[in-house]
Fold this protein.
Amino acid sequence: MANSYSIRTQMIRALEVVAERALKQSPGRTGLKSPLACALTFWICTSAAVAEDGCGKFAWSVAREREALIAQSQPILPSGASIEPGQDQAFKLLLRQPDEAGFVMLPERKPRIENWRGGIVRLPAPPQGGIYQVTLSDEAWVDVVQNGGYARSIGSSGRSDCPGLRKSIRFEAGSSPIVLQISGASVEVISIVAGSAR
């Protein structure tokens, strides 16, 4: 944070110097230069602020997933529903008490909190086997179930400082239908983006 702040401060000072020099060279065109300088200053501040949150610090790019997770037009599904989401399309899953979630297998990991919620959603088979990515808006445990077994997790990246996105997990999946299980969540509704990794 100190580093990013220092760089931002230096960039703003440099821009101010450039703007001052431009104004001295063309004193009659202040109306044009001032808005330009203001716009550039705003752009630098905004860019630095985005860089300072954790969204750019995941192990792989989650920019498209984050955009989908914060979008307003997400279908809302009850636990147990089936959906065929488009590429980079998010959906909201309504979570339930553990005994009402409808798990097809017990969650592979015991939840870390006492009063948790969970749910499942049925997804179509990936076009081909390979890396399957699940990205969540909130903290929860994810199981990808295929052919009566758990798909193997091959990577996970999470941050608590990225607004709208908490974690992204990658699995080694085959080309058969998927039951996505969410457990250990403290929220009642969770947004999800799932599909073959790019």
Q: What stands out?
A: Residues 2-52 form one domain.
